[in-house]
Specification:
The chain has a 7-stranded mixed β-sheet, with helices on one face. The chain is of the alpha+beta class and 467 residues long. Strand 16 and strand 17 form a beta hairpin. The chain has 14 helices and 17 strands. Helix content is 33%, strand content 22%.
């Protein structure tokens, strides 16, 4: 594999205690029998253009290392295996640009010699035990573990940071959302992990990505509609991150989720109405949204002003014809859960019922609306809900982030760091398994204290009293 030292401006800014050892550009692997991928341009679709000005999606994976781990070999293997993964996902080694000769057409442009920035760093001030925890931690301490996207339109950057006493490793990932959605970016990570473990034992590696934007036609001209109305960077950041911003993880076990479902069904029976379809995802979103609204100081029981839970829905299987599951790009649309603030702030089963019913209705609306004129209004609706107060969602339990083993064990903890900038909550499968969910929440200290209390009280009530 050939690597090139990244230009000086691509070096991540070192935070206190963080020392950048090296940054290289890792190109797609090649050999005499397999030359590098040819120059290519991948046009952005109407699903992609929405994210053109979005801040990068940032994740950090925390791994514990064995006392006798060969750290140098681990880092070398990460770099070597990265080149093989990049070969399969070579558009991610390119950069976003305005298509030559156009005024509003953008593309992901790759040419031989392009590569993905891979940084190796050390941080003696960061201890794996204090970072791989659910307890609140300062975003300022973990943000430097994720590299910035290099200038010039890069869409992917990676950083391996050795933590205190080399007892842990933090793998930071920054992805531009215009290049691909969470399903595609985590597909890349699973491919990289497979390459790193050199699965010659017969274990099945992930299938390759489907790199073909012609599979997503645009007969109704949605690209032009979305391009004209695409949000600015400021509009994509629903909150402004404060210097004392915290990030904490809250876990809902399978039993907790069943209690939520039972409480919602019980409230529906009390009201004499049909219960909403309450899957584990609906129960998670509804429960967290309910707690979030109750924790807000200004929440009042008589407040009829609407508030919104904004979350993504994957439409690959709903396109006509359906897109392949491993399509490389974006194919997610927004779902809008709407409910009066006062209803959500209610402490009893009524608030939880309203939240879950709104989430279930939002999914039904999103699914039935794909391919209809209602899609044209996505941008306008996003602006409307942004003005009324919005909690958004990032991640999915379907991504399997806790299954990412690069040869030195599964992650001890995974955080979506970018939720601190976007005002979202990050969702993943429960790392201990068993069908539960993890939710990452970023708030200032006072807000975090209120949310932790509301969350703990609500768990106790649904578990013990079924509200």
């Amino acid at each position: 594999m050939t690597t090139a030292t990244a230009p000086e401006h691509q070096q991540p800014a070192a935070a206190p205690g963080l020392r950048v050892v090296d940054t290289v550009l890792v190109p797609p692997s090649s050999s005499d029998s397999a030359p590098p991928p040819p120059e290519s341009s991948l046009p952005l679709t109407y699903f992609d253009i929405f994210w053109l000005h979005s801040p990068p999606v940032e994740r950090v994976f925390f791994y514990r290392l064995a006392p006798d781990a060969d750290v140098d070999a681990i880092v070398s293997n990460l770099r070597e295996s990265l080149s093989r993964a990049v070969r399969a996902f070579y558009p991610l080694a390119g950069h976003l640009r305005l298509t030559p000769g156009t005024t509003n057409r953008y593309e992901l442009y790759y040419r031989p010699g392009d590569g993905v920035a891979f940084t190796v760093a050390e941080c003696d001030d960061a201890d794996i035990d204090s970072l791989a925890t659910d307890d609140p931690k300062e975003v300022a301490k973990i943000a430097p573990l994720v590299p910035p996207l290099p200038e010039g339109g890069a869409v992917l950057a990676l950083q391996a940071t050795l933590l205190s006493a080399r007892r842990g490793l933090a793998l930071g990932v920054a992805v531009h959302h215009a290049a691909c959605d969470g399903a595609a970016s985590t597909h890349f990570l699973h491919t990289w992990a497979s390459a790193a473990t050199c699965r010659d034992d017969g274990a099945q590696a992930p299938p390759p990505p489907v790199i073909d934007r012609s599979l997503l036609p645009d007969p109704r001209g949605l690209y032009d509609i979305f391009c004209e109305a695409k949000p600015s960077t400021e509009e994509m950041e629903f909150v402004k991150m404060s210097p004392d911003q915290l990030l904490a993880t809250f876990t809902l076990s399978k039993d907790d989720l069943q209690c939520v479902k039972d409480a919602v069904a019980g409230e529906a029976a009390r009201r004499g109405v049909a219960p909403p379809r309450c899957s584990s995802l609906v129960a998670t979103f509804g429960f967290v949204w309910w707690c979030y609204q109750r924790a807000k100081e200004e929440a009042g029981h008589g407040d009829e002003q609407p508030t919104c839970l904004l979350f993504p829905v994957d439409h690959r299987s709903r396109m006509k014809p359906p897109l392949p599951e491993k399509y490389l790009g974006n194919c997610v649309g927004p779902a809008f859960g709407l409910a009066p603030k006062g209803e959500l702030a209610a402490a009893g089963a009524g608030g939880l019922f309203s939240a879950c019913a709104a989430v279930a209705a939002a999914i039904d609306e999103a699914v039935s609306g794909i391919g209809t004129p209602s899609v044209d209004a996505w941008m306008e609706r996003i602006r409307e809900v942004g003005a009324m107060g919005t909690l958004s969602v990032a991640g999915s339990p379907r991504f399997g982030v806790y299954g990412l083993d690069f040869g030195f064990g599964r992650p001890a903890k995974v955080d979506i760091v970018s939720v601190a900038k976007t005002g979202a909550v990050g969702v993943a499968e429960r790392r201990s398994g068993g069908g539960g969910m993890e939710v990452g929440v970023s708030l200032q200290p006072a807000g975090m204290d209120r949310f932790r209390k509301c969350f703990a009280d609500a768990i106790a009530r649904v578990a013990v009293e079924l509200i």
